[in-house]
Design brief:
Blueprint: H1 2-21, H2 25-56, H3 58-61, H4 67-83
Helix pairs in contact: 2-4
């Protein structure tokens, strides 16, 4: 009786997954996991490093009036790529 119950439970758990297979959920889930585990931490680190480099270059960029461009390039762009991008989407518009 336990084997029959286990088999029915296993079949019930697999039944919904077959309907999702046609929509290619595996690829989307894989991209989401890669995005959360690898891409987002690296782009967040790039933002932090960019903020440090931007701060270090302020003595050069302030007199030349290029600090806003440097801020956009080194901090704001990586931050937007990290935070504003939909999960699992790697292409920029």
């Amino acid at each position: 009786m336990k084997k029959l119950f286990a088999a029915l439970l296993f079949a019930a758990l697999l039944a919904p997954s077959s309907s999702f297979a046609a929509e290619d959920w595996g690829w989307r889930v894989g991209r989401t996991i890669v995005d959360l585990a690898i891409a987002r931490p690296f782009t967040f680190a790039a933002t932090a490093i960019g903020a440090g480099v931007w701060t270090a270059t302020l003595p050069i960029t302030l007199p030349t009036h290029t600090s806003k461009e440097a801020l956009e390039t080194m901090v704001i762009s990586p931050w937007k790529y990290t935070i504003d991008r939909p999960l699992g989407e790697f292409e920029e518009d």
